[in-house]
Write a structure and sequence with these properties.
5-stranded mixed β-sheet, about 55% strand, mainly beta, 7 domains, Immunoglobulin-like, 7-stranded mixed β-sheet, single chain, about 675 residues
């Protein structure tokens, strides 16, 4: 076998020599000359290029950390078509005979890789060359560094040498970076102590995004990935940043939000992204897409308006300091109600909140009630968002000394300068109420008492500010001391001014119609004839003598009397005693003619009760009979009298005449007959 190969090689050599030699025969005159031309074939070379790189072969389905199915692209090494190279002389290419084939830097040939990834240059003179990639297949990184190629003879028998160059292209990886921002609640405190919860924009951490293909992706053996398939996912970091990086088929994509933290609205917006497959130099081996505009997520919150009104709800009250607390008891808002009595648009996330008034509007009492409202996920507000204030009040209770309500007492509210701010008058229930008082320090005192009472001398110091709570009890119970009057009656005998005891007088209140009403009191004269009523409220009264004293003319005294405050009204009431006369007829017993000159002494035995017997035994008259024998006493009050003849006319016997006579009530005169012997 080896022998046969050697014979074949020899035969080929002979053929080549025969082709190179020209046989010329010259006939000399005496010799034959044979001339031969002998040439050598130069060694040549060529360049074989093989181009490879990562290629999309399939998609692997994976479940990400958030439960989403992600179709992840898988790349493997393979042959690349379409890579374009320039083959240039790296030096002057000169033949042995001095022929210059190429000068240094001359373009020798442009080569493009085929479907198999291979391409072969033309046959070239030996020398040094440089193979430089000028264009990579779509989506791949090409190198600007030349591949050195040296074509040199390897032996005396190889006519054409081949240099193989293997070049690999890097598939352009992708880096897509986005910035996420979110709305968040922020607490700020002003210099005057107000606290506001406002919505601000901050970095959005914890938002999950996906990268989706916009169009069908064809790969492998005409396999297709449907459009709108999730090919990558990620979550934003603490700075709100997220970068999708790796190898992805180049083309049109979009980014869409997949999930958000609780409390934020999920965005349905698609953000287009183009993965540009423009050829890149090796120093720019990443397709970088930076989304300049941040993606904003809106916070799920509800603007809540709190309202301050008066107790009726009809009047809106500005100037109330309201404090709002979250479920942890932390203050999230502190502000005064505006001119409309509101704190508008307080941003709150779903939850339960409380609020209370910490400073009341001027003239109103602090409402210490804690109100509650709730906001659900859909933004519905339930509970109380209105707080009502009653006007501030200072309350007194006005009573008599026996605890009965006393209307008509006037009180004044005086400021620190002594100026009267307002008045209040006690009602039928005795209530004294100052209301809607401007904040400040005050003194309360009674200006005037109802008629018949002395005003209280007490003063009350009070201070009102926005923390004042309307009391449920009265500040004080103010008793008014009556300023009563009295009626005094002196009952005396009209004749001798002697006091009359035991006489009753009835007292009747005179109504507004001028007519006596109910009897309110009575009084009875003592042994000095004096009677004094109990304390009587100033006003008009009718005083009537209840019954006629024994022994006096029947004439019942009555008078309307007006009593002023602290006034004692006195009246002297006289009674005329019943009176009579004693008439004595002194006669001669024989002739029965009147006998003059007889003297009689009249002595009171017992008389008027008003005298209490103090005048018993008193000689009340000495009378002498006249010409007709008649002797008559002056008027005498009723009672029992003893008449004694104390002088008998001359020439007549003294028989010791003595008689007792009773002058009864209602009898004008009494007669006594005396016959003398």
């Amino acid at each position: 076998m080896n022998f046969m190969k050697r014979m074949l090689h020899l035969l080929l050599a002979v053929v080549m020599l025969l082709r190179c030699f020209t046989l010329t025969t010259a006939m000399a005159e005496d010799t034959v000359t044979v001339t031969m031309n002998v040439s050598n074939t130069p060694v040549r070379g060529d360049v074989r290029l093989e181009k490879t790189g990562k290629q999309l072969v399939r998609f692997a389905d994976k479940t990400d950390a958030w439960g989403n199915t992600v179709m992840t692209p898988v790349f493997q090494d393979g042959y690349l078509a379409g890579a374009v190279f320039e083959l240039r002389a790296a030096e002057d290419i000169v033949g042995k005979e001095g022929t210059v084939f190429y000068k240094k830097g001359d373009l020798v040939e442009t080569l493009t890789s085929s479907a198999s990834g291979a391409v072969k240059s033309k046959t070239l003179p030996l020398g040094k060359y440089a193979l430089t990639e000028i264009s990579a297949p779509d989506g791949y990184v090409f190198s600007t560094e030349p591949y050195p190629v040296t074509l040199a003879a390897v032996d005396k028998k190889t006519a054409v040498v081949e240099v193989k160059v293997s070049a690999s292209n890097i598939y352009l990886p992708v880096r897509v970076t986005l910035r996420k921002q979110k709305e968040a609640l922020k607490l700020t405190e002003t210099e005057n102590g107000m606290i506001h919860q406002t919505v601000e924009v901050v970095a959005g951490e914890g938002f999950v995004f996906g990268l989706y293909n916009s169009a069908v992706i064809t790969y492998g053996n005409d396999q297709k990935l449907p459009a709108n398939t999730l090919v990558a996912s990620g979550i934003t970091d603490s700075k709100g940043g997220l970068t999708f990086s790796g190898m992805f088929p180049h083309g049109e994509y979009y980014i869409k939000e997949i999930s958000v933290p609780d409390g934020w609205l999920l965005s349905t917006e698609k953000y287009p992204v183009t993965l540009n497959s423009t050829n890149k130099a090796v120093s720019e081996n990443v397709i970088t897409v930076y989304m300049e505009d941040p993606i904003l997520n809106h916070l799920i919150y509800t603007p809540v308006t709190l309202t301050k009104t008066d107790i009726s709800g009809s009047e809106k009250l500005p100037g109330a300091l309201i404090e709002v607390f979250d479920e942890n008891g932390d203050t999230i808002y502190r502000e005064y109600t505006d001119a409309n009595g509101q704190i508008p648009n307080i941003p709150v996330v779903p939850g339960t909140y409380t609020f209370r008034e910490t400073y009341a509007p001027n003239g109103y009492a602090l409402n210490v009630a804690v109100k509650t409202f709730s906001v659900n996920a859909s933004g519905k507000v339930t509970g109380d968002t209105v707080i009502r204030d009653e006007v501030n009040k200072i309350m007194l209770k006005k009573t008599t000394d026996n605890g009965e309500p006393l209307p008509g007492a006037v009180f004044g509210l005086f400021d620190e300068n002594g100026s009267k701010i307002m008045e209040a008058t006690s009602t039928a229930d005795g209530d004294v109420v100052f209301s809607k008082i401007p904040f400040g320090s005050y003194t309360i005192r009674e200006i005037s008492a109802p008629y018949g009472y002395h005003p209280s001398q007490k003063e009350w110091k009070v201070s009102l500010d926005g923390t004042y709570v309307n009391p449920t009890r009265v500040l004080d119970i103010v008793e008014n001391i009556p300023a009563p009057g009295r009626i005094q009656i002196l009952k005396i005998d009209a004749l001798d001014k002697h006091p009359i005891a035991g006489v009753q007088f009835d007292i009747y209140a005179v109504g507004s119609d001028g007519k006596p009403g109910d009897m309110v009191a009575w009084m009875t004269t003592n042994d000095k004839g004096a009677a004094e009523s109990v304390d009587l409220f100033p006003g008009k009264y009718r005083v009537k003598e209840h019954e006629n004293p024994n022994g006096y003319v029947a004439e019942l005294w009555s008078e309307e009397i007006t009593i002023g405050m602290d006034e004692i009204v006195t009246r002297t009431v006289t009674n005329m005693p019943i009176q009579g006369k004693i008439r004595i007829f002194k006669t001669d017993s024989e002739t029965e003619n009147g006998l003059p000159g007889a003297v009689f002494t009249v002595t009171r035995v017992s008389g008027l009760p008003s005298h209490n017997g103090e005048n018993d035994g008193e000689i009340v008259a000495v009378i002498t009979s006249g010409k007709d024998g008649t002797a008559e006493t002056p008027l005498l009050t009723w009672g029992e009298y003893e008449i004694v003849e104390t002088r008998v006319p001359d020439d007549y016997l003294d028989d010791g005449w003595r008689v007792t006579v009773n002058i009864p009530a209602g009898v004008a005169e009494a007669e006594a007959m005396d016959e003398a012997e």
